[in-house]
Write a structure and sequence with these properties.
By secondary structure, the protein is α+β, with helices and mostly antiparallel strands. 39% of the residues lie in helices and 15% in strands.
């Protein structure tokens, strides 16, 4: 009586391990990207606080990032994963947005563009990738 595995059994096991490894890598990549989103939440929180202070002094939100004392790039740079903008045209509302860099940002850049947003008046978070 011979003992051991057949070639077919070994191939099936290798295929199963490959599928599980591929699924694990996809989840790992999503977790890493979710961690990178923490940068956007931190900076958008700072922008929101600065916008609220500006609103208290001027009665409107500003649309110019230069009016805020926040170190947030308005274009993709090699020091950040996101570029940031502020739209505060209404008297009672304004939105800060972080746009994920696809090129020119801190590596790795992402292939699919997504955003993270915060509404100034309510502090509500939103986004297009679910990482908020």
């Amino acid at each position: 009586m011979k003992r051991g595995f057949t070639l077919l059994e070994l191939v099936v096991v290798i295929i199963i391990i490959g599928i599980l490894g591929a699924l694990g890598f996809v989840q790992y990549a999503k977790t890493l990207e979710k961690g990178r989103t923490a940068e956007s939440k931190e900076i958008l929180g700072q922008i929101r606080k600065a916008e609220e202070a500006y609103y208290q002094e001027n009665g409107v939100y500003t649309t110019s990032m230069a009016d805020l004392c926040v170190n947030a790039p308005t274009a993709c740079t090699t020091t950040h994963y996101f570029s940031y903008s502020s739209s505060g045209t209404a008297l009672t509302d304004g939105v800060g947005a972080a746009l994920r860099c696809t090129t020119g940002g801190k590596t790795p850049n992402v292939g699919t563009l997504y955003t993270v947003n915060v509404t100034y008046a309510t502090g509500a978070w939103a986004g297009s990738a679910g990482y908020y």
